[in-house]
Amino acid sequence: MQTQGTKPLAATAMIMLLAAGTAVAQSTIRVPGDAATIQEAIDRAESGDVVLVAAGVYNEALTVGDTTITLRSEDGADATTLDGAGLGDPILTTVGSVTIEGFTFTGAGFGGAINANGGSLVVIDSAFVANTNRGIDALVTDVTIRGGSFTGNSAANGGAGVYVLGGSLTIDGATFQGNLGRGQGGAVSVNSATLDARGLEMIDNGDGEIIDSGGAASVPTRIFRTLAGGAIYTSNVNGRIDSARIIGSKAAFGGGLYIAGGGTLEVVNTLVADSLTGTGAIYTNASAPIIVNSTIVNNEDWGIFAQRESRPVVRNSVFTGNEIDPRSIEIGGPGIVDVAFSVIDGTASETIGDGVIFADPQLDDSFAPLPGSPAIDAGDNAAVPSGVTMDLFGGDRFVDDPATPDTGAGTAPIVDLGAIEFAGGQAGPCPADFDGDGELTLFDFLDFQNAFDSGDARADFDQDGELTLFDFLAFQNAFDAGCS
Question: N or C, where is the chain less crowded by C-beta within 10 Å?
Answer without folding.
Answer: N
